[in-house]
Amino acid sequence: MHVVGVQQATRKQPSSDVERRAPAGQQLASPTINNNTNDDDDDDLEDAAAAMWSDYPNYTVLMPPTPDNQPSATGSGGAPSSSGVSGGASRSDLPPYGSNKVVNRRGGADDGGAAKMDRRLSTARVPSPSSKSLLVRSQTGDFDHNRWLFETKGTYGIGNAYWPQDAATAYAADHDDVGGPGGPVKMEDLVDKPWKPLSRKVAIPPGILSPYRLLVLVRFVSLFLFLIWRATNPNMDALWLWGISIVCEFWFAFSWILDQMPKLNPINRAADLAALREKFESTSPSNPTGRSDLPGLDVFISTADPYKEPPLVTANVLLSILATEYPVEKLFVYISDDGGALLTFEAMAEACAFAKVWVPFCRKHGVEPRNPDAYFAQKGDPTKGKKRTDFVKDRRWIKREYDEFKVRINGLPDLIKRRTNAINKRERKAAKESKSDAPVVKATWMADGTHWPGTWLDSAPDHAKGDHASIVQVMIKNPHYDVVYGDPGEHPYLDFTDVDIRIPMFAYLSREKRPGYDHNKKAGAMNAMVRASAILSNGAFMLNFDCDHYIYNCHAIREAMCYMLDRGGDRICYIQFPQRFEGIDPSDRYANHNTVFFDGNMRALDGLQGPMYVGTGCLFRRYAVYGFDPPRAAEYHGIYGQTKLPVANPAEPDEQDRDNVRRFGKSKLFVDSIAVAEYQGRPLQDHPSVLNGRPPGALLAPRPALDAATVAESVAVISCWYEDATEWGQRVGWIYGSVTEDVVTGYRMHNRGWRSVYCITRRDAFRGTAPINLTDRLHQVLRWATGSVEIFFSRNNAILASRRLKFLQRLAYLNVGIYPFTSLFLIMYCLLPALSLFSGQFIVATLDPTFLCYLLLITITLMLLCLLEVKWSGIGLEEWWRNEQFWVIGGTSAHLAAVLQGLLKVGAGIEISFTLTAKAAAEDDDDPFAELYLVKWTSLFIPPLAIIGINIIALVVGVSRAVYAEIPQYSKLLGGGFFSFWVLAHYYPFAKGLMGRRGRTPTIVYVWAGLISITVSLLWITISPPDDRITQGGIDV
């Protein structure tokens, strides 16, 4: 017994001898016919077919010519062929096995000349190499179907009798009637494909999340009761100590609520790359060629000074982007050189030349990462997982080429200077010979002998760092829309015959700068790239990188697209990736990895309205950056947003709003590109539940080539005057007015009702560098905290947010603006133990059991919360502790300075800059962490040093007071001493950073510290001798 497929065909016309077949791939609900090959059952089958004629007027049966089912063939007159046995047809008259030859159960074969199929059992004709004797079971004499299937690699059918076979394709190539216009019938044509989502949410296990939420509630109640007890039990002997402590504790409780509440709903996500490939890059009726239907992607790299940001690092970032796994014809790369330096320009030109061999090499061998410097610096066996025999040869050659590439890049500064000096000397000589009165300027010259239009080595009018023209140079043109393979022998050392050698488009940009204009730093550069890219490529999505962040996982962009193009993805404004860093010391002394924030807080925000935008490694929807509302949004009413009401058609701006010149500028090309970008960024309309989608195959057409007029328009939109009288930086693009423009830009999108997604890939998506020196780290934190203070005193404060921002999301943004002010209370609290030891008092009258129980309960719940948070976020306990230490270090230094700077700027318009005043040289250039031991003095060191010194002296004073007192009060010494040690433990990384390398701190430092502490303590005991009275509640005991 075997099963054959039944496919419905069009009704046969009485006057036609040729039956028309149904279109290929048509899905049917036809019943299958059980072909039990018995002559006695033929009449029953005929009757069954006649009975079903009213429902299915005509059938075509796909039947494989197996040995027990050999169809007979007749000639034009209907006589059976003389060849074959048992009425079998000649093998030359039959289609090969597996061909989709259509046989009509009611009218013969489709060619019109074949007779009714003979359904008798026939085992006499067996395909070679087996014979009938080998295929007949030895005991029963029956035909062995399983053995026949094994030896012929055949099949009787899958589901509705689909049998794949290699010969079918060859047969269909010569018979147009087989399989219809799309070729032979395939499995996917006969089986209904279930709709697959591109991503899914992965919930945190309830066994972790439920206890976590319960502990948050327990700690909240404990804090509430503890604060009530503290407020109702003052220390009458030291009201000033009690007052300072109670104010600080109330603020810390409020700060903890702001930080903890948004963490109540953490989630994980997973993307399905196979489903993305199947929907957008597989052959289908809407995509017969199998080209990519993915939307365009514009990638931005921002740099400003090649002497502070090495061009070799930027070139490696560019190479990693050019080699990423995204359709070449849909990927467009831009670099914004805000300094307009010729060094950056020529370094990028060298990188484009090297990309011609590096990109095909990465595709051929599938190497990771695709940053050459990071790839060749990897430890381990480079041949692991590589299958091509020429990998070792290719890698050796490409490594040598990369070493030469590095030499060329590092030699560019000297090359440019020598070239410039030589040409300037020649120009002066020519002017002298011609006796010209015109002054000869010291210009900077390009390799082709022309003036560099950007910044010159020797500044001149129109060629200074803040005064130069716009520059747009397309270094790599748009590639061909079809795959282009390398030709044999095209390269003398590398074989790219089966490798796509195309390279994505790349353009160098430098926006115009003129004196008297506010260029708005990085935010202005990003907006210039947005406008220029809209003219040149207009990718529906944009991905931005700093010049030191590269792609570590070449499939990361595809994972982000799974979220953007999934059902409901049209409401997502950006996909934020976590930031991962290289070159950090193993102990991560200053919490540079910041895993508590990236793996804890950001993952928790993903369960609300989405993570914040943190500056780099973020994929944006272009339409959302333009300041439009999402297609669907909701407003949250009530005290804590418990009532959700949909907003009626929030994303349908009228044509006047979309084409408003006052909003976007005077470029018609740019305004026309907005609707195109919005349409191309929609998900596929392949399911009834997909709203606001586009039809499949809409993005298959090749892009037109760039012309001179288009490039000229891109130059115009990055001029310094283009943003005048527009909403760029106010409502459109990156928002101006804050040093942390990233947080403000993300907040504005969330405030309009957009959502964001946090994409954590199994292999790190991107990697970058971070400062490991203490001073550099503190200045980085200072910049972030200053931006937060600016946000708090601006209209971007979350208190003023719209109702489209969820309540817990509002708390998270509110915490962004408030957290620097915690430094005012933190520095007082860090000095409280020292004040207690100096005065001989404590924040409570006695170490009451109630106080100790509350303290123990709060501490235990905090530790348990930490353990569960480590469990669902994946961070380590050491990382959590390092984060706590640096929170105290940064809170009493950089955060305090940021608050002071913000208050002076807002209140008096005075801006303070904290600069470096001294720098110690590295002692070992071979040590990769030599920068960790550099000591660069800054005024930010003063508050932490003061806290450390005061607490050390206070400990000595407390011990001396207990020793010299007639009635020692050890409980107060124990309380003050414990908390003083706790403060010093948090400052251990700071002290270690000031000491330099282990064993390099002079002994005299420790000696002097001890002498000063003892001297001050004895002096304090003399001035304020211990009080022999024991008081409690202001009453002598």
UniProtKB/TrEMBL annotation:
<feature type="transmembrane region" description="Helical">
    <location>
        <begin position="940"/>
        <end position="964"/>
    </location>
</feature>
<keyword id="KW-0808">Transferase</keyword>
<keyword id="KW-0328">Glycosyltransferase</keyword>
<feature type="transmembrane region" description="Helical">
    <location>
        <begin position="970"/>
        <end position="991"/>
    </location>
</feature>
<dbReference type="GO" id="GO:0071669">
    <property type="term" value="P:plant-type cell wall organization or biogenesis"/>
</dbReference>
<feature type="binding site">
    <location>
        <position position="309"/>
    </location>
    <ligand>
        <name>UDP-alpha-D-glucose</name>
    </ligand>
</feature>
<feature type="compositionally biased region" description="Acidic residues">
    <location>
        <begin position="38"/>
        <end position="47"/>
    </location>
</feature>
<feature type="binding site">
    <location>
        <position position="302"/>
    </location>
    <ligand>
        <name>UDP-alpha-D-glucose</name>
    </ligand>
</feature>
<feature type="transmembrane region" description="Helical">
    <location>
        <begin position="849"/>
        <end position="868"/>
    </location>
</feature>
<dbReference type="GO" id="GO:0016760">
    <property type="term" value="F:cellulose synthase (UDP-forming) activity"/>
</dbReference>
<feature type="transmembrane region" description="Helical">
    <location>
        <begin position="812"/>
        <end position="837"/>
    </location>
</feature>
<feature type="compositionally biased region" description="Polar residues">
    <location>
        <begin position="7"/>
        <end position="16"/>
    </location>
</feature>
<keyword id="KW-0472">Membrane</keyword>
<feature type="transmembrane region" description="Helical">
    <location>
        <begin position="238"/>
        <end position="258"/>
    </location>
</feature>
<feature type="compositionally biased region" description="Low complexity">
    <location>
        <begin position="79"/>
        <end position="92"/>
    </location>
</feature>
<dbReference type="InterPro" id="IPR005150">
    <property type="entry name" value="Cellulose_synth"/>
</dbReference>
<dbReference type="GO" id="GO:0071555">
    <property type="term" value="P:cell wall organization"/>
</dbReference>
<feature type="active site">
    <location>
        <position position="742"/>
    </location>
</feature>
<dbReference type="Pfam" id="PF03552">
    <property type="entry name" value="Cellulose_synt"/>
</dbReference>
<feature type="active site">
    <location>
        <position position="338"/>
    </location>
</feature>
<feature type="region of interest" description="Disordered">
    <location>
        <begin position="1"/>
        <end position="137"/>
    </location>
</feature>
<feature type="binding site">
    <location>
        <position position="338"/>
    </location>
    <ligand>
        <name>UDP-alpha-D-glucose</name>
    </ligand>
</feature>
<dbReference type="GO" id="GO:0000139">
    <property type="term" value="C:Golgi membrane"/>
</dbReference>
<feature type="transmembrane region" description="Helical">
    <location>
        <begin position="214"/>
        <end position="232"/>
    </location>
</feature>
<feature type="binding site">
    <location>
        <position position="308"/>
    </location>
    <ligand>
        <name>UDP-alpha-D-glucose</name>
    </ligand>
</feature>
<dbReference type="GO" id="GO:0030244">
    <property type="term" value="P:cellulose biosynthetic process"/>
</dbReference>
<keyword id="KW-0333">Golgi apparatus</keyword>
<feature type="binding site">
    <location>
        <position position="546"/>
    </location>
    <ligand>
        <name>Mn(2+)</name>
    </ligand>
</feature>
<dbReference type="InterPro" id="IPR029044">
    <property type="entry name" value="Nucleotide-diphossugar_trans"/>
</dbReference>
<feature type="compositionally biased region" description="Polar residues">
    <location>
        <begin position="128"/>
        <end position="137"/>
    </location>
</feature>
<feature type="binding site">
    <location>
        <position position="522"/>
    </location>
    <ligand>
        <name>Mn(2+)</name>
    </ligand>
</feature>
<feature type="binding site">
    <location>
        <position position="521"/>
    </location>
    <ligand>
        <name>UDP-alpha-D-glucose</name>
    </ligand>
</feature>
<keyword id="KW-1133">Transmembrane helix</keyword>
<protein>
    <submittedName>
        <fullName>Uncharacterized protein</fullName>
    </submittedName>
</protein>
<keyword id="KW-0961">Cell wall biogenesis/degradation</keyword>
<keyword id="KW-0812">Transmembrane</keyword>
<feature type="transmembrane region" description="Helical">
    <location>
        <begin position="1003"/>
        <end position="1023"/>
    </location>
</feature>
